[in-house]
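Bug #77: duplicate submission created two jobs. Keeping one. Sequence:
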Amino acid sequence: MKIEQIYTGCLAQGAYYLESEGEAAVIDPLRETAPYVRKAEQDNATIKYVFETHFHADFVSGHLDLAHKTGATIVYGPNAKTDFDAYTATDGEEFSIGRIKLKVLHTPGHTMESTTYLLLDEEGKQRAIFTGDTLFIGDVGRPDLAIKGDVTEQDLASLLYDSLHTKIMPLSDDLIVYPGHGAGSACGKSMSKETSDTLGNQKLFNYALRAETKESFIEQVLDGLSQPPQYFAKNAMLNKTGYDSIDEVLERGSHALTPEAFEAAVNETDALVLDVREAKEFAQGFIPNSINIGLNGQFAPWVGALIPDLKQPIALVTPAGKEEETVLRLARVGYDYCIGYLSGGFEAWKKAGLEVDEIESISAAVFAERLAETPTLSVIDVRRPAEYDPEHLANAENVPLDDLNSHMAALNRNEPLYVHCAGGYRSMVASSILKARGFEKVVDVAGGIAAIKAAGLPLVSKTALPLE
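Kept job's structure:
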């Protein structure tokens, strides 16, 4: 028996590959199918099933392509209704993969179809649970994403409590918990950076499993939930109804365009120019009106949060050798309409003598000097409220990056806007969006709040008390 977790850090997502006696199964696969097919080929195995724990909202699953390429059966738990051929399992049903079995435990709460799969080894012993977004390490799935009709988030939280207490907590403490996500995912609020644990440890240390009553569980689980990213509902719908083949998406997006052809294609299609280079490189020069979302950060989730239309044509500016990877990472969250990439990257654009823009990026030390000279500088802190509230500059306005588009009308275009985040990634994203929207006096503070603290600038908390 083989159990392999395939963890993708930029999405904080765990997929799973199981193999026994020449038969294999994949649980919650990502959009790209090649890694799973390759593993099966190496094991001389046939992928028999693709198991889905629920309709994912934070990524587009690879279930359809994987089933098409391997002949595997797609399996969902109870209550799942799809626009494509899939098998809807019943609670307690068992599926054989070689000499091992997966048992269906219907665990609604995160969504109505949410299902946990219990692994039984060759001797019939319970070995692990694949919990999807029902149970994380340190947390549970948020119950506010599948609100529909008369079903409220309180109703779903109540169902989640029942699922945990009747289906999961009675299981043996030595079971390994394999969740769908880890720290960094928006599917929960306090997930651990660990990507597996024993169920016994989770019973001891997971706040949600320690709640003394259903009422306190509901209160704790719903407290402090941020607004879900706008792309979540759209990805969930794609996972229910279907999508283009990943091969078609990669072929469509992997066109090398000369600077002149790139400019013409952008104008013809009204494409968004997405520059995925690092913030420092972008600041020093970029194509006018392009947006910077760096490939080296939480790229796909920020694309999903900030680009509202999944069908938006996108033209790419990437580092050399990162073209196909960028197209793939966009496709993971449903952005399938790349029209191509700039051949030779930004250097080719400059050599062609085409128009270039830049953003002023200053060190925290220079920022401190300017603030000393002009204490009334307009400072925009684009961190999330949970980051901003404990410590921030006294004169900084909190405009979380997620909310920037809706808050833009309230910002002053006629004075310099000094933008910072925690470390510099989000502030350059925000600065690029502001510049593209006509804010000509944007100044990025490199290094974010960490560098600002190191420069000796005093910080306050939300209660306006000085922090030591």
